[in-house]
Specification:
Rossmann fold; alpha/beta
Length: 222
């Protein structure tokens, strides 16, 4: 069965994941609308409809969301690290708040949000807390949603954690470390894109949370 050509509205479509996601959606025949800030128009893959607006002001872009669209929230701080805690609040959380407000007003069918693995982390607590609040904001819209929870996404320019793979392998053999090793496992950009596309093309369930194990198993349906 061919997937439905679903209208997709994306906030954060010019970043590491967003540009690749838009390109694949267009290849699969989906109409895509990308909200971008002024000056970033040329970063959007050709073929997508571009809306120039302020992602931190719901009033600025609610009217640009196509009816019954899938709303995808990808905007966030690049290369998250513990030193960027203030930016997580001013960018990630502020954007999630305005997106949840806009999604709640628009007649959309489904929200997809890239969150983060929620096993407690001693170094990324601020990031996890902001993503936890983002999940709450989207949940309170009462719109069917999918949360995708990776930890670190391997891909071009993001390969350094590969050196940790032997340590992950050893940790999975030690009972006291197994849970953490699995909770903070690495996934690839391809696996995340497969997960996003599968979520966008399926009839939305009321609640769907895709953890690392599910991301790794995601196979793109043709």
């Amino acid at each position: 069965m061919q997937p439905v050509k679903q209208e997709i509205f994306i906030v954060g479509g010019t970043g590491y994941i967003g540009k690749r996601f838009i390109s694949q959606l267009l290849e699969r025949g989906h109409p895509v609308t990308a909200l971008v800030r002024k000056g970033s128009e040329n970063k959007v893959p050709k073929g997508a409809r571009v809306v120039i607006g302020n992602p931190f002001d719901a009033n600025n872009f609610t009217g640009s969301i196509p009816p019954n669209a899938v709303f995808v929230q990808l905007l966030g701080v690049a290369h998250p690290s513990p030193k960027k805690a203030a930016s997580f609040i001013s960018i990630d959380l502020a954007s999630a708040k305005s997106s949840a407000e806009a999604a709640g007003r628009a007649r959309i069918s489904h929200i997809i949000y890239i969150s983060v693995a929620m096993e407690p982390s001693s170094v990324m607590q601020a990031y996890q807390e902001v993503r936890r609040q983002g999940e709450r904001l989207f949940r309170e819209t009462n719109i069917p949603y999918t949360y995708i929870r990776p930890w670190y996404v391997l891909g071009p320019g993001h390969y350094w954690p590969i050196i940790l793979l032997p340590f992950y392998a050893i940790a999975t053999l030690i009972p006291s470390l197994q849970k953490k090793a699995r909770a903070f496992g690495l996934v690839t950009i391809k696996q995340v894109l497969n997960t996003l596309i599968n979520a966008a093309e399926k009839i939305p369930q009321e609640i769907q949370i895709v953890e690392i194990a599910g991301i790794r198993k995601s196979v793109l349906q043709r």
